[in-house]
Design a protein that fits this description.
20% strand; 291 residues; six-stranded antiparallel beta sheet
Length: 291
């Protein structure tokens, strides 16, 4: 009886040499539990950033890749195959850079297991999934947005368009507002200001007019909306540049990964310190009565 288990993930991942070796060893150990003499044939398929594909049966050959620039690894598939009592026992484990690979979809990690023992297949599936849990990394694709990592920008597009369409209303409301001084001068010329109370009433009416839906509150909503959207886009672009989601960490890519992680940590620390200093400064200013 053929039993199959398969699973797909949209996680990011940080896969280094040690983790890949351990995953390979786990699968080999599972084969040997079926029979101590059972040794699967193992092959590896590698796809590079320039679109080239290579195949090898040597794990050392995988780790000896340059792995940067046009030779950066964007997809790796390990295939295990063996025969036991006439049955084919196979395990496929794949890792994919869903951003750089032109193949459709956002699946980044997957495995397929086929065997003649239900217990063996289920236990193997659990062990492989445990290894995947150790290397997974948060990925924007997990937010439920279809497509690549540019999806958050597409999700913000309707809100951006709505705010753009509100700009003419803001301009109209601003142009239609008359300054308080102008109203006082006009009322004085007409002889409508008899007492100080009349002036105060006129000033209050002008203030209420500016507080209408087309007044200051409306302007604030538009302003804060744009600031919020620009901040979100800036954060997304920062993470896209300095938060590497899909990582095969060996070869020259190891240094690139370490450098990028260091830059992101440094920038975040500076921003955090700036916020703390600003917050503490505001508290001290309030305590000492400094405006």
């Amino acid at each position: 009886m053929l039993v199959e288990a398969k699973k797909r993930f949209e996680y990011g991942f940080v896969l280094n040499e040690q983790d890949l070796r351990r995953t390979i060893d786990v699968v080999i150990e599972q084969y040997q539990k079926l029979s101590t003499s059972l040794k699967p044939t193992i092959s590896y398929e590698i796809k590079y950033k320039n679109g080239a594909i290579s195949k090898t049966d040597s794990l050392e050959s995988v780790f000896n890749q340059e792995n940067l620039g046009s030779s950066q690894i964007i997809k790796l598939v390990a295939v295990f195959e063996a025969d036991l009592d006439g049955d084919s026992i196979s395990v496929n484990i794949g890792f994919n850079n869903a951003d750089l690979n032109e193949d459709p979809g956002t699946t980044s990690i997957w495995y397929n297991i086929q065997g003649n023992s239900r217990d063996w297949v289920f236990i193997s599936s659990s062990l492989i999934q445990e290894r995947i849990e150790k290397i997974k990394r948060f990925c924007p694709n997990q937010l439920g947005l279809s497509g690549k990592r540019s999806s958050p920008l597409r999700a913000l597009l309707p809100l951006i368009l709505m705010l753009v369409m509100l700009i003419p209303l803001l301009l109209v409301s601003k142009s239609s507002q008359v300054g308080t001084s102008s109203l006082l001068i006009e009322a004085k010329d007409k002889g409508e200001l008899v007492t100080t109370i009349d002036a105060l009433i006129l000033i209050e009416q002008a203030r209420e007019s500016r507080s209408s839906i087309f007044g200051d509150s409306f302007s604030s909503i538009i302003s804060y909306g744009f600031v919020g959207i620009v901040s979100l886009i800036g954060l997304f672009m920062f993470l896209q540049r300095y938060y590497l989601v899909y990582n095969f960490i060996w070869g020259d890519y190891s240094e690139h990964f370490k450098k990028t992680e260091g830059i992101r940590s440094f920038i975040l620390i500076i921003v955090l310190l700036g916020i703390i200093v600003s917050f503490v400064g505001g508290i001290l200013a309030n305590m000492t009565g400094i405006n």
